Amino acid sequence: MLIKKDQVSLIKNDKVCFIKNFISLEKNYDFNFLSKLMEENYSSITQKSYIGNLQDVFQLHKIGNTLKEFTILFDFFKKLFKYKQNKEDEVDLFFSFVSQVGIVHKDIEDVFIIGLHGKTIYRIYDEENIDYTINKGDLIFIPKNIKHKVIGITPRIIASIGFYGERYI
Predict the structure, then answer these.
(1) Mean pLDDT computed over 38-64
(2) Residue 40 CB-density burial (10 A; 0-12 exposed, 13-18 middle, 19+ buried)
(3) Distance between CA 105 and CA 89 in Å, rounded?
(4) Is pTM beyond 0.85 here?
(5) Residues paired with 135 in a beta bridge
(6) Coil, helix or strand for 78?
(7) 74, 67 Cβ separation under 8 angstroms
(8) Averaged pLDDT for residues 93-105
C-alpha cells in the first residue's frame, strides 16, 4: 500500500484523493473469482440499477470478513484515519458485466474505492467537474456528501470500503 503524506492530509481534510497504483494486487479479481466467492459465501446479491438482465450493477455486501486482504485494508484505513466504530462500516464489492453509466449521487459514508478489474471513471462534481480513471490497484477516496457518478468503461469489479462513523480528533 502506497500513500504519501500529502494524500493522507487530503483525506483527513475530507477532500477527494486519487492514488494511482495504491496497491499491487497479486490475486486475479475477475468474474471467475466472483462466481466462486458467491457460490461459497453468498446466496443473494443486490441489484443496483434495475435495468434488467446482466446490464445492471450488482453489489455483494459485507465481504470484509470473508476475504483476509479486505480485512487488512479495512483495518488500515480505520486506524490511519481514526474512524470511530460504527456497525454500518463495511467492505462491499460492486460489479457489472457490461459498460454502464450510473446516476449522479452522494454517499452517506466516506468511501475508499479500489479498482480490482476493468476500467471505471469516477466523475466528481465538486468545485469543478473532474474525471478519475480507476484501474486495477488504483484508489479513490470520496468523502460523504460529495456528488459523483460512476461510469464503467469495461466490465468491472471494485471494492468499496465505507465508514459511516466520525473520526477521532
Answers:
(1) 72
(2) exposed
(3) 19
(4) yes
(5) none
(6) helix
(7) no
(8) 90
